[in-house]
Amino acid sequence: MAPSMPAPLAFDDIAIDFAGRRLLRRGTEQPLEPKAFGVLALLASAPGRVFTRDEILDAVWGHRHVTPGVLNRVMTLLRHAMGEDAQGARYLHTVHGVGYRFDLPKPASELSTPSTLASVAESRAVPAHPTRRVGDGSRRVSRIALWSLPLLALLVFAAWLWWPRIAVDPDPPAIRSDVPAKERSIAVLPLVNASNDPDQQFFSDGLSENLINALARFDDLKVIGRTSSFRFRDSKDDSASIGRKLGVAYLFNGSVQRAGEVVRISTSLTRAADGSTLWAEHYDRPYKDLFALQDEIASAVARALQAKLPAPAIAAKQDDRPPSGSIEAYNAYLHGMQSFYRDDTDEVIQFQEQATRLDPRYASAWAQLAIAWTFKGDAEDWNSPGARRDFANARAAVDMALRLSPDLGIAHGALGNLLFTNGIHWQEALSELQRGAQLAPDSGQNQGGLSRILAATGKLHEAIEHRNRFLAIEPLFPANYALHSQLMIAAGRLDEAEQDLRIVQKLDPAAVPGRRLVYIAILRDDAPAALALARAQSSSWREMNVALAAQIAPDRAFADAALARILADEGQAASHPYVVAQVHALRGDIGGTVAWLQRAWAVRDTSIHQLLYDPLILRFRNDPALIAFCEKIGLPPPASSEALSIDQIRAALPPHAGSDVAATTPSLLNQSVH
């Protein structure tokens, strides 16, 4: 028996006559191509549902051999016919990187528009029926019209799409039979929040990050980290451009919609080079089965790329989901992670404490709570009551995380960073960060932390190696390049350091670290460039940088006066004792250098982390006073550092190397800030 025709759908001044295959606006029929009406009918049949491009092509064209421009043109025609455009869309919305969604402008109970329905009845003698309500039998095939034989494929597709997807094949075959190892690289672009509720953004972002973390545990699969992948939220770049910028062969796209107790996820895996689909799937599952669904999606993607499965025990130990299976605790955790990426430390603490209350055995939440308390303590004056309280809370949280899960990599990383920040316990921090990176090598947080402590203890070559691993995980993270530039400076690779800073400027123009440019010019013995860069700094750093640059200028009276000015400003000198030590080092004054290093250590100025890879300080690497100071604070002898001193770097520079610095960094000079 043929299914009954759907009722006309009316809203605002628009009516969709499914039976007559017509679109009317203000009572006037709008000229539409058959394919254009087919697309509209598909989208309007499920308001709020995101249809991927491939789903639309399969349903309306019956194949996917259609260029992207054809579907784009159809959507433009539909928007024009409905009186809107892409920038001011009310009904037809582009879900970037995924497909399209049709939204009704009013709640279903308010949608019946008698005058609009009457215009349909008058022009086609179609009896006016009540407007179709959202969710009113939306999964029944009988609600879809069999418009004509060419659209029979749409009926079959709709029946497949709308019937509850309970019996999904748990082991879908990989579509590609041979994926070369060099192509096993993927970026998970942020899942689109298709819930029409901004408050659900934490959920779609959290699922995206969970998939990133899950895929990263597969052997021989390169997975780009969240910070870099999320730069392409709502991006208009094509797949080839995104793949090139991220250095991957495949892109994972999708959308997620939470509707009550149901989660709907549409996914696709595409080849970055040409945008072709390798694998696609749509899931409708009970919200309570979320964790199983996450695992299923990750396994399906990995199988499509023929990645080696991780050992179950290893995967379980690094899981960020609660052991109790509490969805409420997981929601709190995801809220906390969203706050983490917004740099709202207080909110992170609030949500992660909630997660641990809901599931006291939630080790990942305890670890993230420790990280947040560490950040909060670091923002306080060292050894102040507030700092002591915050660091004590951090230690209690990380100890709990490690009691619950001794092999949780992020917890070892959290402890390492706490030890590195509070009191600066070099060797203990190094041990914990090494363990964290061993357990969770895919964690950029652990790789970056380990790189910092390795550099701080003079192990420059290993520090560069781990920073490069972090760069492979996060190729578009500006701070990564800023920190890499420090290591290049310490290695005497000044051109590479400058290139890093150009990348920082390109990724985030407001965050160019101008002080490092001053430093590079000083190492090149280019006083004019160093002074010009120093004077371009923000007011809070200008005098300190001018004092540094002045020490290589030929005018000794000017250099002495610059030092005197910063020493006269007790507040500034007290706030930056390590920089004052650097000024004395440039002057060749070992006594002044060590005296100000002592002050820096007394307040645990975290800049002292740089001591064993600072070319200015290392000019005294064999001086007994510096050796004794390093021993006192628990550092290895400065002579063991693999970093170069300013004198070694200058000796290796080609003749006249400093003369081009101003010419090579004009844009950085104009925009540099600390």
Descriptive labels:
elongated; four-stranded antiparallel beta sheet; 31 helices; disordered C terminus; Rossmann fold; 4 domains; alpha+beta; Serine Threonine Protein Phosphatase 5, Tetratricopeptide repeat; Arc Repressor Mutant, subunit A; 674 residues; single chain
Description:
By secondary structure, this protein is α+β, with helices and mostly antiparallel strands. It folds into four domains: 9-162, Winged helix-like DNA-binding domain superfamily/Winged helix DNA-binding domain (Arc Repressor Mutant, subunit A, Orthogonal Bundle), CATH 1.10.10; 181-310, 3-Layer(aba) Sandwich (Rossmann fold); 327-475, Serine Threonine Protein Phosphatase 5, Tetratricopeptide repeat (Alpha Horseshoe), CATH 1.25.40.10; 496-671, no CATH class. It has 31 helices and 13 strands. The strands form three sheets. Strands 8, 9, 10, 11, 12 and 13 form a six-stranded mixed beta sheet that branches. The protein has a four-stranded antiparallel beta sheet with strand order 1-2-3-4, sandwiched between helices. A three-stranded antiparallel beta sheet has the order 5-7-6. Helix 14 packs antiparallel against helix 15, helix 15 runs parallel beside helix 17 and helix 21 (514-523) packs antiparallel against helix 22 (527-535). The longest helix is centred in the middle third of the chain and has 20 residues, at 385-404. The protein is elongated, with a radius of gyration of 30 Å. The protein starts with 8 loop residues before the first strand and ends with a helix. The relative contact order is 0.06. The model is unreliable at 107-181, 659-667 and 669-674 (pLDDT under 50).
